[in-house]
Specification:
Radius of gyration: 14 Å
Distance between the termini: 13 Å
Number of helices: 3
CATH superfamily: CheC-like
CATH architecture: 3-Layer(aba) Sandwich
Order of helices and strands: HEEEHHEEEE
Number of domains: 1
Oligomer: single chain
CATH topology: Chemotaxis protein chec
């Protein structure tokens, strides 16, 4: 599942948004987050997507031609990114494993996440866009 998430993230950043993505070494703090469930058969896995505001502004600039979003707009953007990435991972998983059934939940906006370590993520993928961190982790 983690490999499908990684592939979906890279595709979203490079193919949809057109931004170069790199692996990061540390999580950082003061992020905006969303949580979304991905179900394999009936087993639920919660995924957390956490972004620096600068990263969200870069994504917004590419998608919406606006790089100065208000708080309400950041809420919508983070949830939409979660839908796109986890939805894409769902399609990848379905393609690779036709014996399982997959579905995704509705994303929840987490607001400001000052310390992502508080989420106690089991598996973490760390990336950066224009030297600003974002994190995708399994809860």
């Amino acid at each position: 599942m983690l490999r499908a998430i990684d592939t979906a993230i890279k595709s979203f950043c490079t193919d949809i948004v057109g931004l170069e993505i790199q692996e990061a070494k540390y999580i950082g703090d003061k992020l905006y987050g969303a949580a979304i469930a991905l179900y394999e058969n009936e087993k639920e896995t919660q995924w957390y997507l956490l972004f620096k505001k600068h990263s969200l502004n870069q994504i917004s600039k590419a998608l919406l031609f606006d790089d100065d979003l208000k708080e309400d707009d950041l809420d919508d953007l983070v949830k939409e990114i979660a839908n796109l990435i986890i939805g894409s991972a769902k399609v990848i998983l379905e393609t690779n494993n036709s014996n399982a059934q997959y579905r995704i939940g509705v994303p929840d906006f987490l607001g400001h996440v000052d310390n992502p370590k508080m989420l106690q993520l089991e598996e973490i993928l760390l990336y950066k866009i224009k030297n600003r961190t974002f994190v995708v982790g399994k809860g």
